[in-house]
Amino acid sequence: MQSPSISLQSRDLAVLQGLFETRVMTTDHIAVLFFENRRPYTTKRLQRLKTAGLIGERRRRVNEPAILFLTTKGLRALKDAGLLSEIDVPSAASFARRANVSEQTLRHELSVMDVKAAFHAALAGSDQFASFDFQTWPHLYEFQVAGLGSGGRDKPLKPDGFLRIDVRGELENPYRYYLEIDRSTEAQHRLVAKALCYRQHYFSGDFAVRHGGSRDKIEDFPFRVLMIFRTADRRNNTAERLLRANPPFMTQVCLSTMEGVVANPLGPIWIQPRDYRAVVAGTRFDVDRKGWAIAFRPQPDRNALVEARIPKFRLLSES
Questions:
Q1: 194 exposure class (CB count in 10 Å sphere: 0-12, 13-18, 19+)
Q2: Cα 121 to chain centroid, rounded
Q3: Where are the alpha helices (DSSP H) in the chain?
Q4: 175 forms bridges with which residues in the sheet?
Q5: What angle do CA 195, 270, 296 make, to 5 degrees?
Q6: Exposed site from 23, 126, 219, 288, fewest CB < 10 Å?
Q7: Is the separation of the CB atoms in 277 and 302 below 8 Å?
Q8: What's the 3-state SS for 94-106?
Q9: Please, what are the averages of pLDDT over each run of 10 residues along the chain (319 residues)?
């Protein structure tokens, strides 16, 4: 039976395009990102899009939200509306695989969307910001890293997201952030390896060139890497490892927990490795003491010490 027709509004197309770029979202994500968090209206409109066959639904456990994804018909609607270039349109086989991902991948991508929705709600609710853009489609912001691939070949690094914020009165100096979300499934040394890739991206001048600058003016194009963790223990472990890099990371990487980001990503929830080092200096957790070694077990005493003493800052107030 043919799906009922629907007169697509601009907001409907924005939802379809959002699903194309992010692959999966929940109703709550879509409500925040596209409907000013008006949940009843969002639910009603999404039901129309599902009935029309433009959006599919992947059900999960009873206590988990359903996952929404773009269907082949929805993809055609975007193409017919001129919102996709030929280079953007995937093959039928690759598109069919997009929503059929493992539970681990699904949870990671939903975490990315949780962060995006949190930033959107915080930024859209303030008149301090002239504009902001939070991209989660790697095609738009991935970059090549020299020697990252096998055999020393260049290989793209695909961040979990890229955020640009323009503050009123400071339009010539936007805030730029890359996003990395850790769900405690990745080895710690890989997180540090990613941080090293971001450092190379900055000092090579590639980031400056990508954003309209020149390689000899990298200081005019700063960015931060936001690393978000499930627990404070995992956050602190990564801070220690970043301090063991050569040279150590001090301020380019900012760290927080998922709980803090979802509550208020613009609040005083972020820490930097340099402040972590200062807090544990002179204690048995001192990362500079001779014979210091990374522990591979939870450290509640250390975590309590850090939480009580470390200064936390707001993203848009740090220099």
A1: buried
A2: 15
A3: 10-22, 27-34, 39-51, 72-80, 92-98, 103-124, 188-203, 206-210, 232-243, 258-263, 273-280, 300-309
A4: 165
A5: 60
A6: 219
A7: no
A8: HHHHHCCCCHHHH
A9: 72 95 94 95 96 90 87 92 76 74 87 96 87 90 78 83 90 90 86 95 96 94 97 95 95 97 97 97 89 76 96 81
Report pLDDT digits (tens) over 43-97. 999 999 999 999 999 877 778 888 999 999 999 999 999 988 765 777 777 777 7
Burial class (CB in 10 A: 0-12, 13-18, 19+), 150: exposed
Report the alpha-carbon distance of residue 38 to residue 41 in Å, rounded.
6
Rounded distance between C-alpha atoms, residue 39 and residue 61, angstroms? 21
Q: Six-digit token pair at 10? A: 């601009």
Q: Tokens 């472990």, residue?
A: 237
Name which of 200, 117, 115, 121 is nearest 157 in CA terms.
200
Q: Find, among 27, 31, 35, the residue nearest to 9 by Cα.
A: 35
3-state secondary structure of 227: strand
- In the chain, CATH 1.10.10.10 covers 10-101
Task: Provide the whole-model pTM.
Answer: 0.91
Architecture of domain 10-101: Orthogonal Bundle (1.10)
